[in-house]
Structures
1.
Amino acid sequence: MESLTSTIQAVPLNHYIFLSAIIFSIGVMGVLLRRNAIVIFMSVELMLNSVNLLLTAFSVYRGDAAGQVFVFFIMALAAAEVAVGLAIIVMIYRNTNSIDINVLNRLKW
Amino acid sequence: MTSIIIISILPIVLLYLGLYKAQKALLPVAVLGLLAALVTSVLQWTILDEAQPIYNGMLLYNNFSVAFSVISIISTILILLLSKGYFEKISNHIAEYYAIILFSLAGIIVMVSYHNLTMMFIGIEIMSVSLYILAGIRKNDFASNEAALKYFLMGAFSTGFLLFGIALIYGATGTFDIDGIRDWLLNSPRKIDPLFYTGVMLIIVGLCFKVGAAPFHFWTPDVYEGAPSLITLFMSTVVKVAGFAAFLRLFSACFLPIAQFWTPVLLVITIITLFVGNITALYQQSFKRMMAFSSISHAGYLMFAIVAIGAASANAIFMYATAYSIASIIAFGGLILVRQQTGTDGFEGFNGLANKNPFLALVLTVAMLSLAGIPLTAGFIGKFYMFSGALSQYRIWLVIVAVVNAIISIFYYFRVIVAMYFRNADREQVEVPAYYKFVLGFSALATILVGVYPTVISGLIK
């Protein structure tokens, strides 16, 4: 456990912040640019996981467990969202035979 | 505090009732359970507001929480009463619908009583995940599917922003506790980490998505139009009020020391929200979509209390939210009845309603007057508290903009009244069930009572 903490601390904190910000931005761009519901969904997961990484890094650097506990909550929520989200996507697929979000234009934007 | 436990156990009981085919018992049990939760919640009210954080500082159930729990629970009871006979048309398994609505309410009670960013996040998500399901309960209706998917993708997207903001604030301060973050701000006034400012911005983006404030509102009209009317009613009243309670709690208890940083941002958001909501609502042909845009504009008025943050903000939001919720309940209750007869959401469905259904036309008129903010209704009192809060901080231009918007809003609210009283149409009498009569009559009376004697509820939060 000690060695794990010191391994994580071998990389400066700024690098973790930049890495998380880059992964988060990739997720945001994915949501905004891709048209496939599943890929959008994966991009959202990417955003959540970048937050997990950031929280873990902060938690180790501060020697405070609260950040890691928060990560568990985020993971539990992500699992719940996958369950609901995939169910919604399956429902759409059954009605339209497509998961392209461009077919979702019956209601005007 | 007991109320959260009751509201969490109640849906499980309802699911068992559904399992054993006790369909008739669902609504009475749900309403009785909610009344019990209401009583336990009211008992937590203290004159001096001296509640302490409980569960290791996770929750703080003070008078603010009591007031917003009470309005959420009462609105939910009224909405459940309107659901009598509504869900049966969608599917035979109606216990699930009641259960999911109540799970969502449990999340809402957490949202209005959190004392730690972890609990805020959990509360928002318990509420949102339940709503993603509720928006899509008409499985074969394409609009409902579309609403569910849009709501889900936008909700998950905004959660990402909210979480990144929370993570950055944790990185800067080393705590999730609201008081801890405020103390950190007070102790380091000169050299606040840029991480912290970025975190506050991202949290604003995330919360504005959740409450549907422009420019993050674009999902609102589609989702509100596509979802079943009763669920739209739940989303536009209880959920929106809880969102603002969480918003206000965070900014008044936690980020208050750096108010000069975030007030300009929220000021711009408020003005954009008011204009976008009101001007777009003018062009709508569908009553339901008009109500969606009107809920955006009401989000703009509710933001006033956060922009002009002060001791009176909580009371102002409470008054406005109460007025808005009960008026919306009448409006959507009327829409459900009219739609059952005419099969349309448009304004023309209301033509000539006053001849055949004077009672329905009267309560709908009261609701529209209250939403438009005409004196002697609760809506006027709500706007009065909001505007006087803004004036006390010398934000005169903001109030002028808001009054212009209130005048614009009169146009589209009065279209309904004109359609009901001055347009003629051959129509049958709309049948109003007894449950609806009770809910609509009660809400109309409450609207007028609060409009004439605002002090009955204005002293709940100091």
2.
Amino acid sequence: MIRSGITSLFTTADKILFIFSFVAIISSYSYFWQSTPANYAIVKSSQQDPLLINLDEAKVHQIKGSLGISTLEVKDGKIRFTTSPCRNKICIQSGWHNHGGDVTACLPNLISVQLSSKQSKANYDAIIF
Amino acid sequence: MGYNDKLIAGFAALAITIHLLESALPSPIPGIKPGLANLVTLYVLIRHGWSLAANVTLIRVIAASLLLGSFLSPTFAMSLAGAIASLTVLGIAWHCPGKPFGPVGLSILAAMAHISAQVVTAYLLFIPHTSLFTLLPILLTAALISGTLGGILVSKILERVNSPINT
Amino acid sequence: MNSSILLKFQFILLASLFTLSACSKPAPVFHETVFTMGTLVEVTIVGADAKIAEEAYSAILDDFNYMHNTWHPWKPNALKRINSLLQTGAPFPIAPSIMPLIKKSQILSEQSQGLFNPAIGQLIKLWGFHQDNLDEIIEPPEGEDIQAFLKNLPKMSDVKFKGISMFGTNENIQLDFGAFAKGAAVDATIEHLKEFGIKNAIINAGGDLRAIGNKNGQPWRIGIRNPRADGIFAAIEISGDESVFTSGDYERYFESDGKRYHHIIDPRTGYPANKSRSVTVIHSNAATADAASTALFIAGPEKWHAIAKVMGIKYVMLIASNGDVHMNPAMAKRIKFTIKQPTIKLSNPL
């Protein structure tokens, strides 16, 4: 009874879709993620100029966003939101970040923190002048 | 008020309630929610067709944002983008010849479309940086899980509703 | 009961997980920077075995040091000996270490109608650019000295070859390859990397850049530094085998009486070329890109198009001294501004 119930829940197309989605998602991890430890973070806000933060230097940064001040804490090469005027505090709950190419954000306060593994180069492979 | 209007009003009220309850839930990772309000969309789609489902969903998105005070805010834009994308995908999947997808498949498709549209919206409107897409795998994983569970839930509900005792 | 279908799913999930993790190892990246050729050279190698990358890197370091020593424009070396021999006018045996550079620059100098002219080392020296520290320069040279030099302007065609001998036909000739030497060095070292079986790499010699292959299937992203402020003002994606080179009036210069004198000297006037701020060129060959960017910089907004055509350059961006941005349509398609897009004056296709 239960067994026939569960089986009937997935049509053939559902099963194919599930497997396909699963495989696609797993491969998207390796496509979107490069996990080199970051040593710099670039903080962008709608209310102030981009800020380059050295992750090797333990410090607390105050960032002005569209709702108010968010606080970023840097410690042991990692960075996290500690306070934010947003409603859901999602940014704070997301915890520490330290992977190059990783990004965290407080969407309501319009602040993004982008971690980078190369100094001042953000997303360029080389810079010419 | 026609029969369909009554259905829309009733289901929209249910969806709005779920939407409001859900927005009060804390979420461990940004953007990840069970998407229970979308289950109403799915249920209405299967029982009453696409246009009713679209009505219910759009009313839900607008009304809930008015109640939450987020109307025309970034949150609203994300919510609306997600709703439109999942309705579009559902519309296509629902009208596929032979109706290959069951509630679970439809639910997965809707959840994926929903989250992908939200990420793209966030990228276009708020964080124009490609590294935003590094969140995509996590969000898609969550969408697959919540979509599958949601689909199973809707199937169970449909089973109950369709069983001889209730009719 | 329902566990069997769940087990089935779990098995499929695990199986696909293993398959995928096996084939999605991230490509190793080798990245080193070193001071050589009078600049900071940055070597990036992607997707090669760490040991091979290390070996290739140390091999091209030797190349760089050799070329730096041989081609340096004012230190005692092979180039200096050849310069003094060329000035005598007497034939002497061909110097193999410098021969390829001379041959190539003769062609490019001819194509550029003499705007790229590495034979004017004396003029460069007269301006004081033959020293590392430009702060020591107090004032520009006397106009009379410049005019005297221009009366007998040496050209690359003044270097002649006859059998196994070579000789000069202008007593003012002094070869100074400048950035062209960097370009040639980048070309040589990229070829050397290829011999090591390396397929994906960038060599960036102080902004003189050539890239081969790509970065994990993605094109290389190259940022172009803002000539009048800090930061990046444009980005170009390159892949396959391409060089990007920018000549700018901000690279080497000195100031005297509030006036700025930069190192790109117009061989026709004897003074720093004043029609452009910078020229960016994309070409498969780094040395050609160097020569072209110098020549087009001197040519300025009116004449660059004609000269680029003769030199076979397909992508050019020229920022004129008044700030106007000139480019050909193909370049405009590839360049992405990271700042507010300036007004672009599109030329005819090249």
